[in-house]
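Q: Given only this backbone (255 positions), what sequence would you predict?
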């Protein structure tokens, strides 16, 4: 699930809004609703039937990506779900026939393009800034993290792109994590043993330091696809953002 701040669409080819516009061109790939929906279980409950045709009867069907325009308690945000739910949809987002998708992913490793850093004044992600030190700061009221079921440990950001660096070498890695909101300025994540970010965490903790990390939500789908690559294709120290660069033929911009 991806949170989308509501602001005018820009002329961009490599972002989430452009991806949504691509899906709108195809029947059955995209739907949106302006009916108010509660992020606590209701949102995911609706999509269970719209996007997957229910989760009890088999086989599970593949429905459209869906945007909820009105989320209760969050006037300035929409929520997108199901963006990468089918091979056909991913192929369309990456601009290739479905039959060529595997080849495109393989080739992106060989033509990887390293990310680049741009000035802060050019960074869309710096247009609106909230600091945990601000009076009244509460991430629970800033971003609509859905709770999928009443049995969940809490509300989750389910597609957080987590980016960190090896404390010893400075090499970076990006992986996808579910992130549970624990309080007004705290979220928790599970480090899968053996994965790159877990290795970075161990090194940082052994040196007595915290591991700095960034979390990005609502990115170009190519970044989400690139982040799924694992060893041996991408060994420790291989920045998967370079694969996203290979998929798009241009460097991912960082700030």
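A: Predicted residues:
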């Amino acid at each position: 699930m991806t949170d989308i701040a509501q602001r005018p669409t820009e002329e961009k080819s490599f972002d989430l809004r452009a991806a949504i516009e691509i899906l709108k061109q195809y029947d059955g790939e995209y739907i949106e609703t302006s009916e108010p929906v509660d992020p606590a279980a209701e949102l995911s409950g609706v999509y269970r039937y719209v996007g997957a045709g229910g989760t009890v009867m088999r086989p599970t069907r593949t429905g459209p990506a869906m945007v909820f325009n009105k989320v209760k308690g969050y006037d300035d945000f929409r929520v997108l779900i199901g963006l990468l739910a089918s091979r056909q949809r991913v192929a369309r987002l990456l601009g290739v026939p479905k039959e060529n998708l595997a080849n495109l992913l393989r080739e992106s490793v060989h033509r990887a393009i390293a990310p680049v850093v741009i000035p802060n004044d050019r960074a869309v992600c710096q247009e609106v800034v909230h600091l945990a030190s601000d009076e009244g700061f509460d991430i629970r009221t800033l971003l609509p993290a859905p709770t999928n079921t009443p049995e969940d440990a809490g509300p989750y950001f389910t597609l957080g792109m987590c980016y960190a660096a090896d404390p010893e070498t400075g090499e970076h890695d990006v992986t996808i994590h579910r992130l549970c909101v624990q309080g007004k300025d705290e979220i928790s994540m599970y480090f899968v043993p053996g994965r790159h970010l877990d290795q970075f965490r161990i090194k940082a903790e052994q040196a007595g330091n915290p591991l700095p990390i960034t979390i990005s939500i609502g990115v170009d789908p190519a970044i989400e696809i690139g982040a799924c690559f694992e060893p041996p294709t991408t060994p420790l120290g291989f920045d998967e953002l370079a694969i996203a660069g290979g998929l798009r033929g241009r460097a991912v911009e960082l700030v």
